[in-house]
Amino acid sequence: MTATIPDVKKSWSSVINTVTIGATVEEGGTRTSAITIGGETTLPVHHFEGEVPHPPVVAVEVWDVPAEDWPDLVKEPFAEVMTDPGAWAKRCVDEYGAQLICLRLAGCDPNGENRSPDEAAKVAKRVLESVGVPLIIWGCGNTDKDNEVFPVVAEAVSGENCLLGTITEDNYKTLTALGTAYHHKLIAESPVDINMAKQVNILALDIGFPPENILIYPSTGALGYGIEYVYSIMQRLRIAGLKGDKVVAMPILCDIGIEVWGVKEAKASEGEVPEWGDARKRGPMWEAATAYVYLLAGADILIMRHPEAVRATKETIARLMGGGGTS
Amino acid sequence: MILIGERINAGFKDIATAIREKNEAPVQTWARKQAQRGADYLDVNIGAASRNPEDMAWLVETVQAAVPTKISVDSTNIKILEAGLEARDGRGALINSTTADPGKLEKLVPLAVKHNASLLGVAMDERGSPPDADRRVENGAMIFMTAVEGGLDPDRIILDPILMPLKFMQEQARHVLETIGQYTNLSDPSPHISVGLSNIASKTTQRSLILRTFLVMAIGQGLDAAICDVMDDELIAAIATAELILNKEIYSDSYVRAFRLKAGASG
């Protein structure tokens, strides 16, 4: 007797938006390559029932100032270049395979170096000159300061089709206007809250920002730190998007490195917790494992730090997309 | 929720005049207004203004030139339905409507299949309007089965249990609600279920209140489509809220706005 396996294939009525970041010379920018993500017609890795036309990509994080507070283990690969964001970015691309650079303007933080908007713009230009990949520019997180910095930065990188972040429910007007004026894409942030994830999109759409220019950042938690909450939110967003809710049919971005390298499982030395084993392996592994979970939840862009984690994650993506794995 | 905009109908004087005079402006104004408010389909009906299929073709072309919205061709006459379907530029369509009359189904099911259109089936038969839920269910099931057997995808079948004026046939609204619940059991997933909403409030003074109260109750039973006045903001807000309560949509503080945006509306 042969058992028949029921056909569980599902077809979805809608599709996730396709977003391109970076503009090549022909497109009015200076990038040597652009990155396209999204366009999914099914859930992650469900290749048997739909299309995942663009594989997820890995962006590597660069700061405008030396990242003093990073754990030594993750500072080490960038030790000599941390004082020069251009050289730092170049190393990420040339040696570690970064598909995009995420420039975090940490130095603009009023509680830190409090760098000026002009300094930030100069760094952004420097990074663009040093690498050919598209650029994500992430503010320092101080809303007032970001609203001063971004008008200068967004104009300085005009035409490069960058991804700027973040807009939130309480602060979206400035960046949305800049995205429209200088043709950049935006990251819509919400604090692990699906209702607010939807709300911030509605606010941006309501003032005329095109849905195809938005990425959802639902917040990220490291493995062991609420990852399952974010996972379920990403899943619900993706399912709603595939069912036709255009307000949430955006690709999703995860900010992995900054979360992982703040938790003890990744950064504790062997001296501190001997039973956890080799920290050199443990840290990057924690980052790669976190990234893996988010790939399964539907992440389209992963922002990461450690070169070993980046390498492992890119290999995982190739396998999940059907290239390089066993059939 | 599938919203079918009711306004391009020769039952309205401005549309009847526009059809007679071949004046595109009023038709296109209503097409744009309804599309902007999130109509999934625009119902087009030449009604008593004309018996000429060419007028239906003109009306469809006129609407198409203004908006990309799908068309609901509305007539009891098959020649007029055909003319409307053939005038399309390839966009999606709904045939409004057939009844449970075998002679009608024999022609309209193949027509829907041929044009890749959806078919709206009104639960009426040669005996006339159904007096109770049983007759409505019997007729609806008969339409559904005939259409599926004829090769129409179940997703393209919309059943209409027929709404009667509350003021004159008060007991019927309850039968309609009961019927909607029973239609959802006809197949899995359920067929689409629609009503011509305005009927229920005919000649009443609390028109809009009756419309939206009934609609919310019907959505609770499983209704997922309506031919209605999409310009009625309170009606749309009630639909958005009902869908939220049924957990069909993700909550957000601006969920009513989201409902409009989702429908592709810009205004």
Describe the protein.
The complex is a heterodimer of chains A (327) and B (267). In chain A, 38% of the residues lie in helices and 15% in strands. Chain A has 327 residues and is α/β, with parallel strands linked by helices. Chain A has one domain: Dihydropteroate synthase-like (TIM Barrel). Chain A is globular. Chain B is an alpha/beta fold and 267 residues long. Chain B has a single domain, classed as Dihydropteroate synthase-like (TIM Barrel), CATH 3.20.20. In chain B, 46% of the residues lie in helices and 16% in strands. Chain B contains 10 helices and 8 strands. In chain B, helix 5 links the parallel strand 4 and strand 5 (118-122). The model of chain B has no long low-confidence stretch (mean pLDDT 95). Classes of the chains: A alpha/beta (327), B alpha/beta (267). Chain A binds chain B through residues 194-196, 198-199, 202-203, 205-206, 236-237, 240, 244-248, and chain B through 249-254, 257-258, 261-262, 264.
Structure keywords:
heterodimer, A: 327 residues, alpha/beta, eight-stranded parallel β-sheet, two-stranded antiparallel sheet, B: 267 residues, TIM Barrel, eight-stranded parallel β-barrel
Set out the fold topology.
The complex is a heterodimer of chains A (327) and B (267).
Chain A: E1 18-21, E2 35-38, E3 57-63, H1 72-75, H2 85-94, E4 100-104, H3 117-130, E5 135-138, H4 143-156, E6 163-167, H5 173-182, E7 185-189, H6 194-206, E8 214-217, H7 227-242, E9 252-255, H8 256-260, H9 264-267, H10 279-297, E10 299-304, H11 307-320
Parallel strand pairs in A: 3-4, 3-10, 4-5, 5-6, 6-7, 7-8, 9-10
Antiparallel strand pairs in A: 1-2
Chain B: E1 2-9, H1 13-21, H2 24-36, E2 41-45, H3 53-66, E3 70-74, H4 78-86, E4 93-98, H5 102-114, E5 118-122, H6 133-149, E6 157-160, H7 172-183, E7 192-196, H8 207-221, E8 225-228, H9 233-245, H10 255-262
